[in-house]
Each structure stands twice: as structure tokens, then as C-alpha cells.
Design a protein that fits this description.
By secondary structure, the protein is an alpha/beta fold. It is built from 12 helices and 11 strands. It folds into 2 domains: 66 residues, Helicase, Ruva Protein, domain 3 (Orthogonal Bundle), CATH 1.10.8.10; 204 residues, Rossmann fold. The mean pLDDT is 97. The structure holds S-adenosylmethionine (SAM).
């Protein structure tokens, strides 16, 4: 078969990615070659001399062009791993971040009983990653994910079905807690928290590809918390927990909003980069 060898294709692609400032050029080149050819990572590594036919090589170049233009790999592939689960991502959803796993960890620590039959809400659900990660760990829990974006809510519902969690997850289009009443055991939320003036300075992968409605949190980034915190204080049952994701430097301000609303600060949890990322507040009994 005519064609260019895997090793030569990868080397040229990795050089282009490196010149663009991509952090892991060889790894990303391999991932994109796998997407263009259907070859597994193992096969790509094991047979560097295998020729790739011209049509597939051209498809690979197209994917590399997109990455050089700073489209994230997860958006090119249409999928992102979070909490060891595969989530479909689309232009309507935030690309889930590894740092957000801190929210899942902190929430799970508040429900140590694996058999707990609890009801949870995820405000600003996006792909549904927070809610679905929690449901995957607590097989008797059920929950609702809320998003203002109908397209995002549809993606989250598809993710739930694909992950086998569709019978315990419902997705609702809505403006935060406006239409809700009830007694909730656990609330999680990763609201948009970037100060509006910071958005032009974000990396192109974020600025040009995450939806603005998933990023912009008003002048200081805290507008959604000002709405959500009193609403969570209203919705939680006594003893119930809310875990908020926050941006760098926002932890104390969000904790203060929580205590002002009558919630008790249980914990500020740091992510792997050492940034206070999860604010855990509990409604007093
Ligand atoms: C930062 S993203 C978080 C997505 C997902 N939970 C995650 O952690 O990857 C924030 C989400 O909040 C949604 N959102 C923004 N304003 C909203 C509102 N007023 N009511 C409900 N959802 C809203 C956005 O559409 C977006 O999906």
C-alpha cells in the first residue's frame, strides 16, 4: 500500500503542534491520528512503519490544522473523560475540567454511605458531568441537572443515557432555581465565574470554544453565587450540603456569601494545583 509511515506523520505533526506552543504535542498528535485512522493507540505505537493511506493522512492533516488553530482536542474528538467516564461535548457545553473533579470528591465525602438514597441538584449542568459522576458513585441517588441552555440539557440527557444513568437523572431547562421548591440533600454547582473583563485574555482554547454563557460571571465573577447561594439555603434540607466550584481567589468571598445566607462553612478544598476550588457549605440543623 502507498502512503506515509505513521512515524513520519506523527513527527511532522508534533513539530507543528510544538511550534504552536501546545504542551503535549506527541500525545495529542497520536490521539488525533487515532481519530483520523481508527487505529488504536497500541497499534500506532507498535507499528511506526505502517503506511497510512493518503485519504486518512489528509484527514489527519485537517485535524492537526484545527489543533494548530487552537481548537481543543476534546472538541475535535467531541468527547472528554471526566471522573473516568466519557462525556460528549458540543459547542453548547463547557469542556469539563479536571479541576472540577475536586467538587465531586468533596461532595462524595459528605455522603460516605454508598447506599444512601439521596436527592441532588446540579445547577448549570453543562454536559451533566458533576451530577452523573456523583450518580455513578451512589447507585441509590437520583438527581436533576438544570441549565439555561436547552442544547446543553439535551447533551447532558444523552450523556446520562449512554452512561446507563438515564433512569436516575432528569435534565431541566431553567434559570437557576427559579421554578424549584423542595427539600434537597445535596446541591453542586459550577456556575460561570470569570469576571467579564478577563474573558478577552483567556487562552484561545477557552475564549473561542467554551460558550460565553458558561464563562461570564459579571463584573467580579460572583453574580451567579449572589443568586444561587440564597436559593440553595432555601432548597437544602437541614443538614444538607452545597458544594460550589469557585475560580482562583474567589473562595473567601463565596464562603462569606454563604455564611451571610445562614449556611455554615464546612470546608474549602484545594485542587491538585493547590487552588481553593470547592466551597462546602452546610445548612444548620
Ligand atoms: C461553568 S459551566 C459548568 C458546566 C458543568 N457543570 C461543568 O462543570 O463542566 C456553567 C453552566 O451554567 C449554565 N448557566 C449559565 N447561566 C445559567 C442560569 N441562569 N441558569 C441555569 N444555568 C445557567 C451554562 O449554560 C453552563 O452550562
Amino acid at each position: 500500500m502507498t502512503g506515509i509511515a505513521i512515524a513520519a506523520l506523527l513527527q511532522a505533526a508534533a513539530s507543528r503542534l510544538q511550534a504552536t506552543g501546545i504542551e503535549a504535542p506527541a500525545r495529542e498528535a497520536r490521539l488525533l491520528l487515532g481519530a483520523a485512522t481508527g487505529l488504536t493507540a497500541t497499534r500506532i505505537m507498535a507499528y511506526p512503519e505502517q503506511p497510512i493511506e493518503p485519504a486518512a493522512a489528509a484527514g489527519f492533516q485537517n485535524l492537526i490544522d484545527r489543533r494548530v488553530a487552537r481548537e481543543p482536542v476534546s472538541r475535535i474528538l467531541g468527547t472528554r473523560e471526566f471522573w473516568s467516564l466519557d462525556f460528549t461535548v458540543t459547542p453548547a457545553t463547557l469542556d469539563p475540567r479536571p479541576d472540577s473533579e475536586t467538587i465531586v470528591e468533596a461532595a462524595l465525602d459528605r455522603i460516605p454511605d454508598k447506599g444512601a438514597s439521596i436527592f441532588l441538584i446540579d445547577f448549570g449542568t453543562g454536559t451533566g458531568c458533576l451530577l452523573l459522576a456523583l450518580l455513578s458513585e451512589r447507585p441509590h441517588a437520583w438527581g436533576i441537572g438544570i441549565d439555561r441552555s436547552e442544547a446543553a440539557a439535551r447533551v447532558a440527557a444523552d450523556n446520562a443515557r449512554r452512561l446507563g444513568l438515564g433512569d436516575r437523572a432528569r435534565f431541566v431547562v431553567g434559570d437557576w432555581a427559579a421554578a424549584l421548591a423542595g427539600s434537597v440533600d445535596l446541591i453542586v454547582a459550577n456556575p460561570p465565574y470569570i469576571p467579564i473583563d478577563d474573558i478577552p485574555g483567556l487562552e484561545p482554547e477557552v475564549r473561542a470554544h467554551d460558550p460565553l454563557t458558561a464563562l461570564a460571571g459579571g463584573i467580579d465573577g460572583l453574580d451567579p453565587y449572589r443568586i444561587l447561594i440564597p436559593e440553595t439555603a432555601r432548597l437544602l434540607r437541614p443538614g444538607g450540603t452545597v458544594v460550589f466550584e469557585v475560580g482562583q481567589g474567589q473562595a473567601d468571598a463565596v464562603a462569606h456569601l454563604g455564611t451571610t445566607a445562614g449556611l455554615a462553612l464546612h470546608e474549602q478544598r484545594r485542587d491538585l494545583g493547590g487552588i481553593a476550588r470547592a466551597i462546602v457549605l452546610v445548612k444548620p440543623t
